[in-house]
Amino acid sequence: MTVTSATERLDRIDPSSRRVPPMGGFSLTFLGVELKRLFRNSSVVVFTLIFPIAMLVMIGLPNKNTSISGVPVSQGGMSAAVPIMISMAVYGAMVASTMTGVSVASERAQGWSRQLRLTPLNPVVYILVKVVCGMVLGAIAVIVTLIVGAVLGITAPLGNLIAAGVLAWLSSLMLTSLGLAVGYAFPAQNAMRYLGPILPILSFMGGLFVPLAIMPEAVQIGAKFTPLWGIANLSQSAVIGVAPDGWSVPNLIVWFLVFTGLAVLMFRRDTKRV
């Protein structure tokens, strides 16, 4: 049998005639395979775990004894390194989730997506597995960053840390959608080339690298319309123990809907093309 004839026979498979497995094909085994594929990528490990920790050591540690609460850190005041630590946790979760989503670009180039469409796997389940992988990797990034911070002596009330950590982790849901949108919109060789420079810019504009309070007023106003400002404001406010800006939640919801809508649109376009 020639390759051409085999391909033609595969193309004549009627998807409606296949038996749909329980839960659309979702299984812990499939989820485990996807997670292993991610952890084999050295770039994921470096930018998800090593880079945020390195930034915490370089930027946060020198500010560990600087108080932002008016009370000396030695007397129980809040260290300036604490919001820096949470910002790095958000950054780690952001990189983890976007790289998880954008991995579909290389899978498309390798023909993996086409092979999956020849199976009874529900395409929605495939997307959900990617989202779960992004959130698992994001949780690891947040937890590791907070643990390293504790080892370095960067501490805050436990309740504040938990609340801020959960908020930082939830950013994975929104940003996996961004990665999926880019992964389905561009070829593998271009996806990270476009997304790579965007992430640091969004982080800077969102206040993850530099406190927005020291920036010009025009920059502070413009930052409120960027994707990472809402989650940065929520998580930093939670760890400090102050009320967040009233626009932070609407910002988070709007950008989640925008990125999710783009991911769905790009996925449908790719499905028609393949």
Task: Set down the secondary structure blueprint.
Layout: H1 3-11, H2 28-39, H3 42-60, H4 81-109, H5 112-117, H6 123-151, H7 158-185, H8 188-206, H9 217-223, H10 229-240, H11 248-273
Give an account of the 3D structure.
With 274 residues, this protein is mainly alpha-helical. It has one domain. It is 72% helix and 0% strand. The chain contains 11 helices and no strands. The chain has helices at 3-11, 28-39, 42-60, 81-109, 112-117, 123-151, 158-185, 188-206, 217-223, 229-240, 248-273. Helix 4 (81-109) runs antiparallel to helix 8. The model has no long low-confidence stretch (mean pLDDT 81).
Order of helices and strands: HHHHHHHHHHH
Number of strands: 0
Task: List low-confidence stretches.
Answer: none
**Approximate strand percentage:** under 5%
Shape: globular
**Largest pleated sheet:** none
Helicity, as a percent range:
over 70%
Radius of gyration: 21 Å
* Span between termini: 24 Å
Secondary-structure content class: mainly alpha
Q: Taking all residues together, what is the mean pLDDT? A: 81
Short recap of the structure:
With 274 residues, the protein is mainly α. The protein has helices at residues 3-11, 28-39, 42-60, 81-109, 112-117, 123-151, 158-185, 188-206, 217-223, 229-240, 248-273.
